[in-house]
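ok so i was messing around last nite and threw this chain in just to see what happens. nothing serious, just curious
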Amino acid sequence: MAPDPVVRPASEPHLAQVAWAVRDLPRACRFYTEVLGFRRAGGRLLWGPGLSVVQELGDDAAATLWWALGGQEFVQLEFFHHTLPIGRERPSTWRPCDLGWARVAIGVADLDAVLARAAAAGHLPLGPVLTDGTDGTDGTDRVRRCALRDPDGVVVEIIGDGGVTGNGDRPRPAVRSVTVSVADLDRARRFWVDTCGLTPLDPAALHQPHHEALWGLEGAHREQFVARGVDVAIEVVRYDDPVGAAPPADQRLCDQGLLNVALAFRDRDRFDTLLERVLAAGYRATVECPPGPFASTYLRDDQGCSVEIFACPPDHDALLGFTIEPGFAPGWPLDE
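result:
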């Protein structure tokens, strides 16, 4: 039986967060700050049923959580290092076409400088450095890009598009897109576009078939759609050749790699509206949210993909990793 049709919500959520499960928290943070230029935004120690229930990790859980910020407003990176339960390492056989969260794209101001810092830290490109566009004679700029693996094996596409500059600050990196590999594009579109309210985009503006060479899948055959969460895009891909392998049936969110992304609002009413829509469409949330301006829960779509949704009013930014961490002491800055 076909699912009931849904009417898209009018309020587009922010794609406000990309989350990792990492094996070495300082090493992961060091890569994204020293190599890519993100800034530290503090962290938390988490334990108990609040963590274990929302992430479906059993009766108890413990983790250290850290955040990092680029140049975008209300967009953060989030790193979990779980010590209970301890996550499994990503299999060496994992491929970017395998089902689940596949890669993240980061825009930077100086691609050559980033690649030099990455090489010094032992991270070399997985494929060629490609140049799109021309020198501007036809109205398009030359954009160079490549891909490498971060310390936890996650594929990171680096795009030399200038990053983000604001308030007189120097250019900072920007999250451009996150890619998820799925078995069924129609079911994925119903979740991301029809239910969650992301705005469809032209997929060719993000990636074209020759870009698959960047992460070692040259010649791959795939179909995809792209949708926007305000400032960051979700790229949903179905690989037909090579066909992506399904994750293990017992895979947990503490296992190494990309954990999920978060859709967020600045006010609780719109969060509640989205959560009601998600539940009415037949998807599942892991926890109920008590009253208050802040709210957060994890979802599972009908293909097993984890997504967080939350509400974060601006006066909660310092508590939830959306402000830069202050310097350690005079003369010992934590950020340039």
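not much to say yet. The longest strand covers residues 232-241.
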